[in-house]
Fold this sequence. Notes:
Layout: H1 2-23, E1 30-31, E2 44-48, E3 51-55, H2 63-67
Antiparallel strand pairs: 1-2, 2-3
Amino acid sequence: MRLQTAMIVGISMMAGALAPAQVAAEPKIYPYPSAANYCPSGLQPITIAGVICCGTPNQKVSYQSMMAHPVKKAHKARYYQPTPVDYSCMPGEKGCR
């Protein structure tokens, strides 16, 4: 029982030591591509947490290009024609469809 309690205390202390590194991490600030720049001098349009505002980006690529999916392989559409139905059988004859 004591070994289990010691393990829980050890794991919680390790998680407590790593938590400040996660909290202190800088948010990713992406540049926002726009034709007009209405921000004060020295600042540019940025995107942070989905909001567009003025600031200095800390990422090289825009959020839209970072979230873009990789190029997918194009699939050619396939068209199937139904098989012709043989209606040459007489009504009531066995083996016909």
